[in-house]
Amino acid sequence: MKRVESELITNVEELLEDKKIGFFMGYENGSLPLRTSPCFVKEKEDVQRLVWNCFCTNNLSVYLVSLIPELPAGTKVGILCKGCDSRSLVNLIVEKQLKREDVLIMGISCSGMINIDKLTGNLDGGRILEVEENEEEVILKLDTGEQRFSRKDSLYESCKNCTHPTPSVYDILIRVGEHAPKSVCPDPMIAKFRQKERLERWQIFERELSRCVRCYACRNACPNCYCKECFAEQTKPRWFGLSNELSDVLFYHLVRILHQAGRCVDCGACVRACPEKVDLRLFTRMLVDEVKERFDYEPGLSPNDSHLLGVFSTDDTQEFMVEVD
Ligand code: SF4
Ligand code: SF4
Ligand code: SF4
């Protein structure tokens, strides 16, 4: 990863020096082991803080819509984008929340992000001193010795089933191995869920969401949730109660999930943000598969795409809209 970090740092230094960008967003080491935080760089001397590793999980495009209007007019923002992040960013352009010329996309081909719980949950004890990674393994150096984890087995579910690890839209691309796009095939775990009877699916939905404490972290982590006033907090009209009653919780989630149709890129940011570990992906990934199956559409692949919900075709397999004779 040192090669990637030095390529990243050199690129950002040059871009700031040549005034091609006024600001850069990437990652820096967090205050805890195995964690990174978003890193906002304005000055050349701060560039050395940037890191790249298998814990750079945040989808940084979530900051763009609120950040750009705060910057001096004409400031171009550089942003480090994994495949999924770039799709979120492109989605924001398609939805006219962002102008392509306001951002410089530094794409990075991604080998997948590691689910920290899968490492810490299997630690034999000891304090983490250092972490190494390669395409096969994540190696934790502890004060009690060394522990090795298979990278493939430790990935987040969204990364195991990622279809676009390399951004399809970028200005500069940093290559980390070869990660060609894969065709969307239904996620096996989700396919199993879809096969269940309707009532059983509803029971799972209720069971999963009964843990929700309505902190809205899932909404705040999602780049698609940029409304200045969210329906969840609106008072005129108030769409639903503010309690933690299951009916209120379900209403919030049903609306949030439906708002993701044709927009969710399965980045997993909402799942990672949830303090209660609600498996939100069970529902949003189902939408991703459904949208692909019905409309052959994947969001965020080109800024020139039309929004799925903004077009209509009589060929759409929308049995609820086009009556079959
Ligand atoms: S979903 Fe794909 S691009 Fe995004 S972090 Fe996982 S592997 Fe990387
Ligand atoms: S709903 Fe979740 S997985 Fe989908 S784009 Fe938003 S944060 Fe990413
Ligand atoms: S992050 Fe989790 S607990 Fe918070 S509102 Fe979303 S599902 Fe509920």
Structure description:
This protein is α/β, with parallel strands linked by helices and 325 residues long. Among the domains are: 114-154; 188-310, no CATH class. Helices cover 32% and strands 14% of the residues. The chain contains 12 helices and 8 strands. It has helices at residues 2-17, 64-67, 83-94, 116-120, 151-154, 157-160, 188-195, 198-209, 217-221, 246-258, 269-273, 281-295, and strands spanning 23-29, 36-41, 77-81, 103-108, 128-133, 137-142, 145-150, 172-174. The strands form 2 sheets. A 5-stranded mixed sheet has the order 2-1-3-4-8. Strands 5-6-7 form a 3-stranded antiparallel sheet. The radius of gyration is 21 Å and the shape is globular. 32% of the residues are buried. The structure holds iron/sulfur cluster (3 copies). One iron/sulfur cluster binds next to helix 3 and helix 6. The site of one iron/sulfur cluster (SF4) has 11 residues, from helix 3 and helix 6.
Relevant terms:
binds iron/sulfur cluster, 5-stranded mixed β-sheet, 12 helices, 325 residues, alpha/beta, 32% helix, 14% strand
Q: Report the sheet-strand fraction.
A: 5-15%
pLDDT averaged residue by residue: 91
Percent helix, as a range, is 25-40%
Q: What's the order of the H and E elements?
A: HEEHEHEHEEEHHEHHHHHH
Which ligands does the model contain, each kind named once? Answer: iron/sulfur cluster
What structural class do the secondary elements suggest? Answer: alpha/beta
The largest sheet is: 5 strands, mixed
Q: Tell me the strand order in the biggest sheet.
A: 2-1-3-4-8
Using only C-alpha atoms, the radius of gyration works out to 21 Å
Distance between the first and last residues' Cα: 59 Å
What global shape is seen? globular
Number of strands: 8
What is the overall number of helices? 12
Low-confidence stretches: none
